[in-house]
């Protein structure tokens, strides 16, 4: 690793959307930055559907033109299908807000992540793939360096003023410090694959993310049309239900698919790709977002759930906020925990709206169409949350009505009165 300098103002661990965004912005502010990714870029990754509010991060990074000219499928809305197969009216984003920022893309994560990784280099970051962060050097409670290992086996230490951990669900620093906490109410697992030639509804000028429940409501499927005539289809359920005491993941996937007529119909004439994958217990938070000389962003900070496709947007937004705090701290000579983590309380409060929406979904009684028909004044707030406008004033007022409404639906279901 002779081409890696012995010291940098900032070392960013992880070349996903969060790491590449943070590295690009800190480097653009005039600081020396090293961005390392342990795998060879491009690399495969799940998480194809974006939230429209990512637009503003893309604009700041200067990649909107690339995305607009890309082959990625344009995402124009979200639709829900309940356990009986009844479809909600689609939430078309442009019907709520006609601006270009109200639509986004279903991306190929390998290609998308590589685009952002290369953009970080364009902005001045020193980018290296196939370089693994083995450990964070801590001195008197402060992060002062990173131990790196090249794929060839060479290891050395790089000193730095700030470490940005964007290592994703590897959660390097959170694991080292013992601050990662799995959400006991969201111990979920996912099994997914791609299909070629599955149905694509482009009636709204693009494709939609479709969320479908199985007939017994024990699992749900995502249905995400992508480019190259591919559709990502994934099944999510409680970890114990999906992965314990059952057959191989392929068998489990087929068993759950048989209970979801909406997906079965859409893939009936399609070819299943040989790329079945499994992930589990991916919902967690960290007790601390920053310390002296370090800060967590993206999935290294936390991950809620895949149901509303919030993961990449939260990664991008947290990286932007953290990058600004890091740049300011480096300029002022203040890389304390208070400075590097100053953005996190507001961000955490804003993301809590999506967290509450996730818990509503998993109650099993959140019938989106029914709620909106009974509370039409919240259609805009719900659409805003699906777009990702979590910082919009008043958006969380929806829960003043949703929470008691949901409790009523659950009570009626338990008493057998639900229709």
TrEMBL record:
InterPro entries per UniProt: FAD/NAD-bd_sf, Flavin-dep_Halogenase_NPB, Flavin_halogenase
TM regions (residue ranges): none
An annotated Gene Ontology molecular function: monooxygenase activity
SUPFAM superfamilies noted in UniProt: FAD/NAD(P)-binding domain
Domain of life: Bacteria
Entry-linked Pfam families: Trp_halogenase (PF04820)
Protein name: Tryptophan 7-halogenase
